[in-house]
Design a protein that fits this description.
This protein is an alpha/beta fold and about 350 residues long. It contains 10 helices and 13 strands.
Length: about 350
């Protein structure tokens, strides 16, 4: 064999050697990823019972919509029999990877399928994720079939692993942050101290979660939903700047505390585009609303549910002329009959 052929064969062996190494690394990465996601509490048992309306929209199919539930549980339970303190729809544009966040106010007056009218956060309490998703879909003409439920402890730990997030705490908010910090310490078995002053500062996971729970300042629950979106946005943006080891620690810590119907393949499909996602807008729903009492119970009423749903589809899916379904119009007419007249 000539020296020229020997050199060529040697180069080919080197190339194949590096290809083998790359393949082994990729395989190891996939195996490890599936090991971690296998620690997640995956529950698809209620998927077949999720219902929705017949939706006349060509736009909604271009988006992946995931419901995020933050449960108001004093023992960090994740399944039903706990109220969803946070309800956020994360809508991902499949082409651009742009993300929009929509908070649904937890006291919003809705029809819970086969249960009657109540606050929307009662749906998770009464029937877990299938009933919560069905309630969202039927009242707002959506087709959300995927969800992620997290508890207080998971949010606290993720933010701590990120090294904290920067928040602007007002003087009015400070006392409530410290009050909720004490409560979170009792829930999570921690001993986090109080914040000493207001202002823009990097806060730890307990303080950030406490901030997201405040509802007694001006703006009430509407302002709280805004704070929750701020915290989600801060977590997301901080995570995009982290190194692989930090992301690994977050995944390893958080996955066992997630309750979801996203399996390993679903999570891998989301994870592959993580650095392409950008949160471009956020809002609270209903857009036009009244907070008042009905039969001595406080609710958030959509002034005109049909008009709000049209605006929702415009906001999330850029559907300029969406016409709500007959089901939504029926709900809208009923709510108009009981909305307190100003």
């Amino acid at each position: 064999m000539s020296s020229k052929k020997k050199r060529k064969n040697k180069k080919l062996k080197i190339v194949f050697f590096f290809i083998d190494i790359i393949l082994l690394v990729l395989i190891a990465g996939f195996v490890y990823f599936f090991y971690l996601t296998g620690k997640t509490n995956v529950d698809k048992s209620g998927d077949s019972s999720i219902t929705s309306n017949e939706i006349d929209s060509d736009s909604i199919g271009g988006y992946r919509n995931i419901a995020i539930f933050g449960v108001d549980s004093r023992n960090n339970a994740l399944e039903k029999s706990t109220h969803s303190d946070t309800i956020v729809i994360a809508s991902i544009n499949k082409k651009t990877k742009d993300v929009k966040l929509l908070s649904i106010y937890r006291d919003t007056y809705v029809d819970i399928p086969e249960r009657g009218y109540d606050k929307i956060n009662a749906a998770y309490f009464r029937g877990g994720y299938p009933l919560a998703l069905s309630t969202i879909n039927k009242n707002f003409d959506l087709d959300v079939k995927e969800y992620v439920t997290v508890n207080f402890d998971a949010v606290c730990k993720v933010i701590d692993l990120l090294g904290g997030i920067e928040l602007d705490i007002t003087k009015e908010e400070l006392k409530y942050v410290n009050g909720y910090t004490k409560e979170l310490n009792e829930i999570n078995g921690t001993n986090v101290g109080k914040l000493k002053s207001a202002g823009t500062q990097v806060v730890n996971g307990t303080h950030a979660t406490a901030y997201a729970r405040i509802r007694y300042t001006k703006g009430g629950d509407f302002k709280r939903a805004e704070r929750q979106r701020i915290v989600i946005n801060k977590i997301f943006e901080k995570a995009k700047t982290c190194d692989v080891l930090t992301i690994n620690s977050i995944v390893n810590e958080m996955f066992p505390q997630i309750y979801t119907n996203l399996d390993s393949l679903d999570m891998l499909d989301l994870a592959k585009d993580i650095f392409s996602y950008n949160i471009v807008d956020q809002a609270g729903f209903p857009f036009e609303k009244i907070a008042d009492y009905y039969k001595k119970i406080s609710y958030v009423f959509p002034v005109d549910l049909s008009a709000n749903v049209t605006e929702l589809h415009k906001f999330l899916f850029d559907d300029q002329d969406y016409v709500p379904s007959s089901t939504v119009q029926e709900y809208s007419d009923f709510i108009k009959g009981i909305v307190p007249q100003k």
